[in-house]
Structure formats: C-alpha cells, structure tokens
Design a protein that fits this description.
The chain is an alpha+beta fold and 76 residues long. It is built from three helices and three strands, in the order H-E-H-H-E-E. The chain has one domain: Winged helix-like DNA-binding domain superfamily/Winged helix DNA-binding domain (Arc Repressor Mutant, subunit A).
Length: 76
C-alpha cells in the first residue's frame, strides 16, 4: 500500500496547524514557491473557509507567523 502523495497545499496546512505556526519564509522554503504565490495560496485557503490568523513577532523586526485557527481549508 502506498501513501497518497502530499500536495504542497497539504504541506502549507500542516505547517499552519503547528502550535508555533509558520513564517512566510518557512512556507516558501517548504513549497519552493515565491512569497506572492504563498500569499495567494493562503488567500485560496481563506476562500475555502479556513481561518488563518497572522501574528506579529515578539521580536523587533521579526517575521510574522501564520496560524490555521479553524476549519480545514478543504471543501466538504
């Protein structure tokens, strides 16, 4: 039995579900996408019903992190 291949959007959702969330840089690195493509993917997840929260860094000039707070981001 082979596992279903994980899509890049699945990787994004997994990273967003972590308690620490994910920075834009981490999402770009995991997917190989440019920042504007990651932002578009986040927008697409929001359109599908996911609630994504952006949290500012505690450190000055630190990266913001994104968290998936509700829903799965997948069609029912």
């Amino acid at each position: 039995m082979s596992k279903a291949k994980q899509t890049k959007i699945d990787k994004v959702q997994d990273l967003l579900r972590r308690p620490s969330g994910a920075s834009l840089e981490a999402l770009c690195k995991a997917t190989g996408w440019q920042p504007h493509s990651v932002r578009a993917a986040l927008s697409g997840l929001r359109k599908k019903g996911a609630t994504i929260q952006r949290c500012a860094s505690d450190k000055p000039n630190g990266p913001s992190t994104f968290h998936l707070t509700e829903g799965t981001g997948k069609e029912p």
